[in-house]
Amino acid sequence: MDKIYSALTQIVGEDYVSNRPEELFTYSKDLGTSPPQFPEYVAAPRTAEEVSRIVRMANQEKVAVVPLGGGMTLAGLALPLRGGIVLDLKRMDRIIELNEKARYVVIEAGASHGKLTAHLHKHAPHLMHSEPGAPPAATIGGNLAIHGQGDLAHPYGFNSDMLNGLEVVLPTGEICRFGSCAIGCAWYTLHPLPDLGLFLGWNGSTGIITKVSLRLFPCKKFREMDIFVVEDETLIPDVLFALTHVGMAEDLVAWSSAIPPFANELHHISINITGDSKEEMEFKRRQIFDIKLSKYIRDGVGAIGAVAQPSERPQISKSADWKKGGGFEYVGSIMPVAAYPECYRRGAEISTRHDIPYTVLGRVIGAAHGMMFSWSYAFNRADDRSVQHARDALHETDDLVMELGGTIWKPAVFGQQLLMSRMDPNTLQMMKKVKTMLDPNGIMNPGNWEVA
Questions:
Q1: Domain edge (last residue) among 45, 67, 88
Q2: Residue 283, phi-psi category: left (phi > 0), alpha (psi -120 to 50), beta (remainder)
Q3: Domain FAD-binding PCMH-type: where (predicted)?
Q4: Which of 41, 343, 396, 414 is the most buried (most CB within 10 A)?
Q5: Tell me: the pLDDT tens digits for 436-445?
């Protein structure tokens, strides 16, 4: 094992390699309920070339490699399930190119969402990217690799739909580029080249994303959050259909929560609108409330909870730790918007059964083509019983997603196994062939998407 430590030191430098127990412990856990999984080594490369050299060495030594971004997935997706080397990519955080006219930015995959937002505020305040609602330390590459969604999901879709190009280190060490950058052009498009979507949704088991080109969008001068409230959850799909039809909102999130008490058994729709003038904001507000939502107000089944509240971009993760025990995890799913009522009812039942205040949330994706629906379960890290309650609730909710005809989003190993148990056999075998072809020695984040 000293041979591997020596090789890592030669590649990235002594200051960026560790096998000390206290540092391995830090990398053995994430913020969710997964039990600790210890690596043998941690290395922090600075370039794609260093990543490539580490992966080639790992193939020779048959040692696992687990890429790590911000460690914010909660579901154990970047834990070293088979030991080996954790590659902490957060040193790879350069912002390489900002093309304002073509509205894209080229960045290293370890750059955080917070860093990109700050860079745009300073250098291009009229542009923005889709923030996931996670803490600012969440990395761009990690979010893309799990098909993350953000606060521009309603008009533009998943964050992984906003890619113009990728640089990836394959499991055998080759550095490949995909998109217009692959033919020596600028990083402005993935189209119309052959689709090589082998790296998104795979949890780093098919390669390590090292560089991305991300689309940027207009950032308006004014921003506010309006809230519409209904008591009957069955109204939510119709209300969201009306709101997406008018197309005035930048972000739409439906939510209900047992805490704080005013939210319990009520359903709030947060409507984020933006504009470049007060007249534009007023026009959008009239279209939403006076035209699309007025009938619910007249019928006495809906009410305005707030209007024109000054709003920062939403940080959904801030609402999770109701037990004040330092922990929460959630099951995310991609569901039809029409499933909201049943998702709410069944999720609240699971929370009650496990003594956890319920928190359910659905973010509209792509003009109501779908909804990222999540059930959050807070727990006290210092209480093993509390952790086990949350873990059991998570597993029950994975089963519920499948029962309701949804797709588990960023599934942990338990959820991956559920999905594969229902997957078309030919699709499953194709996945196996792809992984075997790309990763013949099985070193890339083993334990994830393992086809029997």
A1: 88
A2: alpha
A3: 34-219
A4: 343
A5: 999 999 999 9
